[in-house]
Amino acid sequence: MKKAEEIFQLLKDKFQESIVEFKTDQPTEPIIIISVSAIDKVCALLKSNPDLQFDSLINLSGVDDYNGQKVVNDSGNSKMQSGTISVYYHLESTKLKHKITLKVSTNRDNPEVPSVVEIWQGANWHEREAYDMFGIKFINHPDLRRILMPYDWEAGYPLRKDYENPEFYKGMKVPY
Amino acid sequence: MMYDFFYKITGSEIISGVILSLLPLFLFILPFALFAVYLERKVSAHMQDRLGPMRTGWHGWIQTIADILKLIQKEDIVAKDNDKLLFNLAPIIVFTGSYAAFAVIPFSSYFLGSNIDLGIFYIVAITGLSVAGILMAGWSSNNKYSLLGSMRSVAQIISYEIPTILVVLSIVMITSTMNLHTLSEMQTGYFWNWFIFGGPGTSLTKFLLIPFMMIGFLIIYISTLAEVNRTPFDIPEAESELVSGYHTEYSGMKFAMFFLSEYANMFAVSAIVVALFLGGYQSPIGYLGKLFGLPWLIPIEQFSWFTLKGVFFVFVQMWLRWTLPRLRVDQLMTTSWKYLIPIAFVNLIIIGLIALL
Amino acid sequence: MAVRTEEMVLNMGPQHPSTHGVLRLELTLEGEIVTNVIPHIGYLHRCFEKHCEAMTYPQIVPYTDRMDYLASIGNEFGYAVTMEKLLGIQVPERVDYIRVIMAELQRIASHLVALGTYGADIGAFTPLLYCFRDREKILHLFEITCGARLLYNYIWVGGLSHDIHPDFVRKTKEFIKEFRPTLKEVNELLSYNRIFIDRTANVGILPIETAINYGVSGPNLRGSGMKWDIRKEDPYSVYNKFNYDIPVGDGRNGTVGDSWDRYYVRVLEMEESCKIIEQALDQLPEGDVTSAIPKRIKPPVGHVYGRVENPRGELGYFIISDGSTSPYRVKVRAPSFVSMQVLNELCKGYMVADVVAILGSIDIVLGEIDR
Fold first, then answer.
1. Average pLDDT for C109-119
2. Could you give the residue ranges of the DSSP H alpha helices within C123-258?
3. What is the rounded distance in angstroms from the CA atom of residue B157 to the CA atom of residue B147?
4. How far apart are CA A122 and CA A127, in angstroms?
């Protein structure tokens, strides 16, 4: 069993500046912030390193940080430009019984994150859900389709903070 | 017999023939189907800690009549891409198959539609007709579930006909007759004269036959269960997989015909088992009519005994249905080809050898 | 001449008797052999996560009920535990005990549905009714506690909505006494039935490594032989005060991790739940159950991941707070959502009938998958 600090130190030694920050100011668990390009390599190490053995991805969630610039368009609706979107990874080792939370942030206008499906098969649907809800494109994902929304939903990504419900979907009235 | 009776009254061959062929339908199949549906509901309900239908009539006894009324009123849906001709023909063929079998079933020594010498052979042949109907239903429905269901059904009925026929053959071998009336008459007297107890007589052969007859009885009962698609062999209409198999697309009266033929079949196969092994219409304990010297009572008693025995086996079918899970299609084939058929063959040879003694 | 064959695509659902809700499976068949399964979900999507962002923290509780509608107490429990972790609330002991009793009763009720419907999937309809009869008794216990039978809104952040009914302890003890023979009856009728074993043993084998890699949890993971239970591994509430076992699959009738093992783990778990309930009822402390409920919930800025062992596996809530009275983001790690992913892996090479058996053995609730 390893503490989060030790895991951070181990990763920092290995990946240098790809490991951005270790945040402990959270009310509960600490969090390791990783630069987006390195997440798949970091995860591969986390799984294969005999001292870490993170064999299970508990959860993967996208979060809209909504920290860019607000732009009001012609119809009076405000849209967000630039800013970031984040992905949180909750990992656990069933053998060594420790947990860790990772976070990557990516550009909100064209969010792209390397997929971890190769490492944990269970990430498949979680990543599809994040794509469905936030439009995060997971590079190298085997089957990146919408999952909860209809496959032909064209009105954007619902869990983004500036999402607007469309008036009609295929001729059907949406707000009922 | 019945035909002569009607011929005497009407004086016309055609009219008496028509009456005779309609009699089992109105006198027996329809009332029996109504009763069997009600019985099935009540049996399942009481096995499952429920009451079943209680609202329509006393303990819900007119529930099935209400159901029939509902089915008659229902819209007869024919989907656009169905093969109309086969789709409409299939329920009729299936029903004909099970209905025609009643022609030779010996309800009593007097009430017997047609006393032909090839009775058993005829039943085996005519029930095979429903296979064609089922296949037609599955194909013409243009539904994958129906198609899968009918394919399974055909494979199942054909494979289970073999053990049935082998057991029938062993009976035919020792009695050297295929006439169901003659067969039933042979088992007259008391229940130890039934073929399940080795048949009439007190010779050594009879006692040697008993265990093998019992095995034969079990095999024929299991395979008839499969032939009428009852649990644990109800995979053609496996509700949890195939929705309801070959009759998924049917509604209204066409569905009712499938339903009716299913219940008619249930009785028909029970009747075959009863006629072959359990004395047919013969009473196990002698007749009241003989005791009191009332000869007209005997046919009524015989009819009651036959119906009672048949209904008992129908009840056993229901009992099994609400107790056992369902086999998988490959396990079903294994049961037939790897177990029942070899056992039936060995049984046949042994019975043949004993009969030679 | 070679016979021309082609694969058949069979669309199972969204309206189908044994997809346990509105699930659509696209099966590719080679005769009766399944070569590929593509699940299509989302028919029951009710935007739980989007709704949460517009509601205050206490308002979310009734919505959590509607995710896994067979284990509502478990959902509320998970949410309450997570929020208390974020807020740093220590709830009175009585609250914890009652929560555990309720959660275990709910586990029994949920497993009864799982067992019964699984029997019905295999073709044995009667055990379903026996299971529902006993579930009815549990629902009655819930009804006398909080007035609701399915969606309770009982466990609140920091406490409970009501204290238990004065009769509750007696009635629950009576129920446990009546329930044990039923379990035996169901076992004799279904679990040890030869046909049932033939249908489920050696079908849909889930090796332990695959299970962990997919993140499968709960009875499905334990059926593969892994002794893993959040109640033991990451104890929450007062679970570490009780004495109980974690049953695992042992491949008694086939291979470890087959459908029968997953099914039988649930049967054994009900017995363990009974043990927990009995101990909790005996130790039940006195006290107030509403004293720790905060008047206004305004958690600090930050994020929290809390998890509980729901009947279907690990239920996790990932909540991000921006310091206001409503959450910034709620993500639910639904156990069925994760377990569903292995379906394709499990079904390949089996028959259509086995797909139903495998799907039933995973025990999914679509309300939770689609949220």
1. 89
2. 126-146, 168-186, 194-200, 208-214, 219-223, 230-233
3. 15
4. 9
Among A26, A64, A124, select the one facing C341 at the smallest CB separation: A124
Nearest residue to B303 (alpha-carbon basis) of B275, B335, B270, B281: B281
Buried b / exposed e over C329-353, threshold 16 CB at 10 Å, is bbbbbbbbbbbbbbbebbbeebbbb
* CA of B77 vs chain C CAs: smallest distance (Å): 19
Contact A29 C316 (CB under 8 A): no
Give the tens place of pLDDT for each residue, B215-247: 888 888 888 888 887 777 777 666 667 777 788
Distance, in Å, from the CA atom of C157 to the CA atom of C161, rounded to the nearest integer, reads: 10
Per-residue pLDDT tens for C67-110? 888 888 889 898 988 888 888 888 888 888 888 888 999 999 99
Chain C, 105-144: which have a CB under 8 Å from a chain B CB? Answer: 119-126, 129-130, 133
Q: Return the residue in A1, A23, A56, A160 with the most chain C beta carbons within 10 A, the one to mutate for interface testing.
A: A56
* CA-closest candidate to residue B280, choices B166, B146, B138, B112: B112
A120/C215 CB distance under 8 A: yes
**Looking at residue B240, what is its pLDDT?**
65
Helices vs. strands in chain C: H and E counts, helices first = 15, 8
Amino acid at B159: S
ipTM score of the complex? 0.86
Q: Which of C9, C129, C358, C361 to mutate to test the interface with B (most CBs of B within 10 A)?
A: C129
Reported pTM? 0.86
Q: How far is B267 from chain C (nearest CA, A)?
A: 23
- CB distance from C42 to chain A under 8 Å? yes
Using 50, 70 and 90 to split pLDDT, how confident is the model at C1? Answer: low
User: What is the nearest CA distance from C352 to chain B, expressed in angstroms?
Assistant: 7
Closest CB from B145, B240, B329 relative to C123:
B240
